[in-house]
């Protein structure tokens, strides 16, 4: 029995545009006759010449996929079939389905937990398993893939555009938009180049191996140093993504203690490489745990931030509470037995919150300046020498607002009692150092009056009567 014309076609390598056009036209006529027979509209299909051009351009584009990739590309087959049938809007929908399916497979093969941790604002309690990927909106999927360098930045921008067109002009939603053969083939080429035929970047592969090692190995100093050097080689953006993931792992109350130890050894390297916005996001995460009463995550987040010297990234309200607590502990240690030994760890803890900028929230600024000055001047037994370097570093960063708080001491009974007769000279010496820092003429004048004041004038608040009310 003779083969039909459809099954006896020559190899596609020998086809010309005229051959494809003739073949598509034959199929098109049959389809249009059938739609007419059913009394249905026939102008829903694209002109056969445009279909022929699309089919003619496809072989070179599809050739960018290897044999294994082609064998699994079911939606690409449907894409091509839709092109041949003249349903370009359906073809776009199938192309997007293939792209999203491929991205999900890459995410699972890469590192699912890491991927979820890269997505800003994602509720990690709802996204843990592979099946949860089905509930992740497409825009967040490609955003996460960009953050993890599963796709490139240019690929991300192209995919976002194709996603918009898929939502606006494909069969996914009712529309009357006309797509052309060049649009479809260009989008297919983009999806193949940027997703279907592409593997994650070399930097992303390094991160994947690192995450596997964190979960499966026990780090020592040598191994941690090697990993830290690898982190330094990562692009800044990927370092930030890694940092966000390390933090997400660390605050998991079910995380193995060994894994937490591994993270402790390397997290600071990622922190130092990360962008400021990532650090602020982590600080806000801590605030959200506090607001929600999530004590377990709050505890681990605090430890993490402490280990990477990131406490200054806490939100203002949280930082106020945290620093006030540290100030209370410091003053308790200062006023009680063995303060020479007990002050230093509290001074060090306080220093971690402010050491980079010297800034504290306005609501606790007075208490901060007051505590530092009292502790630096010492008590009747002297100064806690081991804590002095921390006090000096924090006091050295005082700006005008902090110096103004210092001048307020002239009416603070507690400060004046702590100063006493024997610490007046040190108090005035401190005022001299501030006078050399500030350029504010009022503050400078107030400090100069303080330096010239007699001991009794300071203790009896006569200094405040002379000048304090004018500027305070």
How would you describe what is shown here?
The chain is mainly α and 472 residues long. The protein folds into 3 domains: 185 residues, no CATH class; 111 residues; 156 residues. Helix content is 70%, strand content 0%. It has 25 helices and no strands. The chain starts with 16 loop residues before the first helix and ends with a helix. The N terminus is likely disordered.
SSE topology:
Blueprint: H1 17-37, H2 48-62, H3 67-71, H4 74-85, H5 88-110, H6 112-118, H7 138-147, H8 153-169, H9 181-196, H10 202-216, H11 221-233, H12 236-250, H13 257-273, H14 276-291, H15 295-307, H16 316-335, H17 339-354, H18 365-377, H19 388-396, H20 400-408, H21 413-419, H22 424-437, H23 441-452, H24 455-459, H25 462-471
Helix pairs in contact: 1-2, 2-4, 2-9, 4-5, 5-7, 5-8, 5-9, 6-12, 7-8, 8-9, 10-11, 11-13, 12-13, 14-15, 16-17, 16-18, 17-19, 18-19, 18-20, 22-23, 23-25
């Amino acid at each position: 029995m003779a083969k039909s014309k459809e099954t006896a076609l020559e190899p596609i390598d020998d086809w010309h545009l005229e051959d494809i056009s003739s073949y598509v036209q034959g199929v098109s006529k049959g389809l249009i006759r059938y739609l007419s027979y059913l009394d249905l509209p026939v102008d829903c299909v694209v002109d056969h010449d445009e279909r022929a051009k699309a089919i003619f351009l496809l072989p070179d584009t599809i050739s960018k996929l290897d044999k294994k990739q082609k064998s699994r590309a079911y939606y690409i087959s449907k894409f091509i079939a839709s092109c041949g049938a003249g349903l370009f809007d359906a073809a776009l929908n199938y192309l997007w389905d293939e792209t999203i399916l491929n991205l999900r497979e890459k995410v699972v093969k890469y590192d699912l937990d890491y991927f979820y941790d890269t997505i800003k604002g994602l509720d990690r309690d709802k996204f843990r398993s592979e099946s949860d990927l089905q509930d992740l909106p497409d825009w967040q999927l490609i955003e996460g893939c960009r953050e993890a360098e599963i796709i490139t930045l240019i690929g991300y921008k192209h995919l976002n555009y194709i996603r918009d067109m898929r939502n606006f002009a494909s069969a996914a939603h009712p529309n009357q938009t006309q797509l052309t053969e060049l649009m479809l083939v260009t989008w297919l080429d983009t999806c193949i180049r940027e997703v279907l035929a592409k593997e994650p970047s070399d930097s992303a592969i390094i991160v994947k191996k690192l995450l596997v090692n964190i979960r499966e190995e026990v780090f020592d100093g040598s191994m941690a140093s090697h990993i830290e050097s690898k982190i330094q080689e990562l692009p800044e953006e990927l370092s930030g993504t890694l940092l966000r993931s390390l933090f997400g792992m660390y605050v998991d109350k079910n995380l193995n203690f060994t894994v937490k130890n591994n993270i402790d050894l390397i997290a600071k390297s990622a922190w130092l490489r990360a962008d400021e916005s990532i650090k602020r996001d982590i600080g806000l995460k801590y605030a959200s745990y506090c607001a929600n009463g999530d004590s377990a995550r709050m505890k681990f987040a605090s430890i993490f931030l402490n280990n990477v010297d990131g406490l200054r990234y806490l939100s203002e309200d949280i930082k106020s509470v945290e620093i006030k607590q540290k100030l209370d502990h410091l003053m308790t240690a200062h006023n009680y037995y063995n303060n020479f030994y007990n002050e230093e760890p509290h001074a060090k803890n306080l220093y971690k919150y402010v050491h980079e900028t010297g800034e504290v929230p306005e609501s606790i600024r007075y208490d901060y300046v007051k505590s530092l000055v009292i502790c630096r001047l010492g008590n009747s037994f002297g100064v806690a020498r081991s804590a002095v370097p921390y006090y000096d570093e924090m006091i050295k960063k005082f700006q005008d607002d902090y110096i103004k708080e210092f001048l307020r001491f002239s009416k603070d009974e507690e400060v004046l009692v702590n100063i006493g007769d024997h610490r007046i000279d040190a108090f005035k010496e401190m005022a001299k150092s501030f006078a050399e820092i500030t350029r504010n003429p009022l503050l400078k004048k107030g400090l100069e009056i303080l330096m010239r004041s007699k001991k009794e004038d300071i203790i009896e608040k006569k200094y405040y009567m002379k000048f304090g009310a004018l500027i305070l």
